[in-house]
Amino acid sequence: MKLLLITGQSNAKQTGMVLEGMLDKEGMGVLNCAVGGSEVIEWQKGTPNYMAALKAVYDSQDAGHEILGMFHMQGEAESGNILKAAKWKLLTVKFFRQFRVQTGLADLPIVFAQIGPKPTDLLRPCWGIVQNKQAAMNAEWPQFRMIVTSDIKPYEPARGPHWGKPGYHEIARRAYNTFFGGTNEQ
Fold it and tell me: Which residues are bridge partners to 86 per DSSP?
């Protein structure tokens, strides 16, 4: 079976569940390793999140499955701290590159989602910095393809950076099209 790896935080996890339904119709599946509330530092080589995703890939490969790509959605946790926001791009590129090397999947397609509209629930002074880091990564690293989510209305903007069913379906549609349609959905 061909599988899509999902990493990042809770929005990635929810999007992964929608992607699973889409891919299941085509005889493909999802390895949903996303962890709610996680920061990019928690996806670095040797961390529990990294190791769990790596083990899931190795176990799947041992079972004869093929990893089609990785969908990653993360950045909200860094938006409240200037030092964390400033390091987002560096640490995310490091994660992607190390994961490709360690899995032996040097050309693993990676699609990431830019964080969406700024929520009003908490003080997040660095939201725009993270979005800009994500856009810069998209421009500087064409092998990592970005989808934009800022035009998708959150379910309850006052309660955080999360979407309802329609939002997650739209994010999943964009991710699917970017992986399988060859476009950079924006």
Answer: none
